[in-house]
């Protein structure tokens, strides 16, 4: 692969362009908003000038509702040897393209499982896809050369290829991406009219749950409109769990011993099933999740504090596997929670104390 055209210079399109340009690929940027393409070009993602000849690969990075029309135009114009899209829904666009009667042998649907709450070219980074799954949905008609181009793209972006059926992909993302977005937004919506006293009590738990609620509503309306059935199916299951949980909580309010026992069992059941589901979420590098030990360090809000902690952990010979920061409301301080291998936690705690850090149990 030597030349690529990216049609759509939002977060995903520009991130892919940055990754490719950084590895020596000639990237041409196209967007319905010329200013967006110019912004991406200014970031080093390529050039907003049109290619002079047919390119090796065309990456269609537009919302799901526009994939079929944009891709159909590109196919008819013959701008590339191979074509792929990176939309978050795969079955619907494929069926739209088939209905147009186009030759789809030079096309493959793909979806990189990476994103942010922010959108647009300014949110893009060349490392957005590193280590993340990138789904490929070839059919029996997909040309081998196009599949190879898609695999090369995934490798250049340092992602991990995953081959799936398009409809199976849509059911999967309904569970692991689209429904969590809606539930996060629903929880955050409870805060809109909440008393200010309650809002001031927000801690790390509510911050974790509502982080993705900051996403662009217009973007998500387009995504959910392209995958409504599978998302509704998952939400129906969540709604059933909610009904059972509400009944269990009402049972805990009862004066009847049997109802209280049923309530306790109901709450325990949903929490245990939550534990079992959480264990299945892949851990670091896509491996089985590891039970890390947490070392909590009190820090002040001053430049260099985080760098100092990581430097001292390195001097102690301890690898920090993950990190979280819990901010103290209304104070210039917080807790840095360092996740490390259980066997390394005592040594790290001792080393940090020796270097003057305040460790919290």
From TrEMBL:
Pfam families: PDH_C, PDH_N. Pathway: Amino-acid biosynthesis; L-tyrosine biosynthesis; (4-hydroxyphenyl)pyruvate from prephenate (NAD(+) route): step 1/1. InterPro entries: 6-PGluconate_DH-like_C_sf, ACT-like_dom_sf, ACT_dom, NAD(P)-bd_dom_sf, PDH_C, PDH_N, Preph/Arog_dehydrog, Prephen_DH. Its EC number is 1.3.1.12. GO terms for molecular function: NAD+ binding; prephenate dehydrogenase (NAD+) activity; prephenate dehydrogenase (NADP+) activity. PROSITE patterns: ACT, PDH_ADH. The keyword Cytoplasm does not apply. It comes from the Bacteria. It catalyses: prephenate + NAD(+) = 3-(4-hydroxyphenyl)pyruvate + CO2 + NADH. Gene3D superfamilies: 6-phosphogluconate dehydrogenase C-terminal like domain, NAD(P)-binding Rossmann-like Domain. Keywords: Amino-acid biosynthesis, Aromatic amino acid biosynthesis, NAD, Oxidoreductase, Tyrosine biosynthesis. Residues 2-289 form the Prephenate/arogenate dehydrogenase domain. The keyword Amino-acid biosynthesis applies. Residues 294-361 form the ACT domain. One of its GO terms (biological process) is tyrosine biosynthetic process. Belongs to the prephenate/arogenate dehydrogenase family. This is Prephenate dehydrogenase. It comes from Streptomyces atratus.
């Amino acid at each position: 692969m030597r030349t690529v055209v990216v049609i759509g210079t939002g977060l995903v399109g520009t991130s892919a362009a940055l990754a490719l340009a950084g590895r020596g690929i000639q990237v041409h940027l196209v967007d319905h908003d010329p200013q967006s393409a110019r912004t991406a070009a200014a970031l080093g993602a390529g050039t907003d000038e049109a290619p002079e000849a047919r390119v090796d690969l065309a990456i269609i990075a537009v919302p799901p509702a526009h994939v079929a029309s944009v891709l159909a135009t590109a196919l008819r114009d013959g701008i590339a040897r191979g074509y792929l899209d990176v939309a978050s829904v795969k079955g619907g666009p494929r069926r739209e393209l088939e209905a147009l009667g186009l030759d789809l042998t030079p096309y493959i649907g793909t979806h990189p499982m990476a994103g942010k709450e922010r959108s647009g070219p300014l949110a893009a980074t060349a490392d957005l896809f590193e280590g993340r799954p990138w789904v490929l949905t070839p059919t029996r008609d997909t040309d081998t050369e196009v599949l190879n181009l898609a695999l090369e793209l995934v490798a250049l972006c340092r992602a991990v290829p995953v081959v799936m059926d398009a409809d199976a992909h849509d059911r999967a993302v309904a569970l692991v991406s689209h429904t969590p977005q809606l539930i996060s937004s629903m929880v955050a919506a409870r805060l809109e009219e909440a008393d200010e006293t309650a809002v001031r009590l927000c801690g790390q738990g509510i911050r974790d749950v509502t982080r993705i609620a900051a996403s662009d509503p217009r973007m998500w309306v387009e995504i959910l409109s392209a995958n409504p059935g599978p998302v509704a199916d998952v939400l129906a299951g969540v709604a059933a769990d909610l009904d059972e949980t509400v009944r269990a909580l009402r049972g805990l309010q009862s004066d009847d011993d049997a109802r209280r026992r049923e309530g306790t069992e109901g709450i325990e059941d949903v929490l245990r099933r939550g534990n079992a589901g959480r264990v299945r979420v892949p851990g670091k590098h896509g491996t089985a999740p590891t039970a890390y030990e947490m070392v909590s360090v009190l820090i002040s809000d001053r430049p260099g504090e985080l760098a100092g902690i990581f430097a001292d952990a390195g001097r102690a010979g301890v690898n920090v596997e993950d990190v979280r920061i819990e901010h103290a409301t209304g104070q210039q301080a917080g807790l840095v929670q360092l996740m490390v291998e259980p066997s390394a936690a005592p040594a790290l705690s001792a080393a940090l104390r020796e270097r003057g850090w305040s460790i919290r149990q």
